[in-house]
Amino acid sequence: MYAIACIKQVPDTTQVQIDPVTNTLVRDGIPFIINPYDVHALEESLRMKERHGFRALALSMGPPNAQAALRKALALGVDEAVLLSDRCFGGADTLSTSNVIAAAIAKLAERDEVGIVFCGKQTIDGDTAQVGPGIAVRLGFSQLTLVDRIEQVDFLKKRIRVRRKLEGRYEIVEARLPAMVTVVRELNRPRYPTVPMRLKAARAEVTTWNNSHLNLDVNSIGLKGSPTWVSRIFSPERAQGEIIGDGIGNPDGTARMLVERLIAADMLAV
Question: Which residues pair with 136 in a beta bridge?
Fold first, then answer.
């Protein structure tokens, strides 16, 4: 039975800059990483392998260089890695992306039963949190989002119980398998790869599937199958700088400076 971790290679957003002239991302020299939430999804698939005998598989959609992310997954201990890469997949929004990934999972289900699919709750480059639920809908899987703890997996009854982290409270939910589980960072603490596993992963095969493997209508994938698009990216402009004062050494002076600034801003607004 498969425990599939869907991972995405994303630019490290702590180093991303926007060209002020073209309003596009400056990608030159920006390192790529596995989406941080997906690292926790990957870790949980490995725990399912160790505790319950699942076959752990890492699945990613992206250009050929996304193999680097999958090799990191192999170094951590997944049994198999599959990259979905084709020019016709390019420019995909969340709808088109979930179409491709769902088709790949359905193809994997022809080999072995799929028990759980893990995704990070969202990616740091898009922040939409839509791909995991989109995959669940297309496959007819139970949908469990914002999971911070796996309470129980019952193979005989094909049930899973999880805890969801909501605003100000938790929710215990039980659902049938197969299930799509999107995870938050509190779920686990990811492991580090060992040197022998790194060396093994460098020589391991990463399976690559293009659209000839999935046979999807080109009008339902990539840019053609994407009803949404990004028209412009820009950095918000700050009209004024920070107010810096010494609230400990000179609290009276700092308070006076703040009041004067607020009065001046109110007068400008009038």
Answer: none
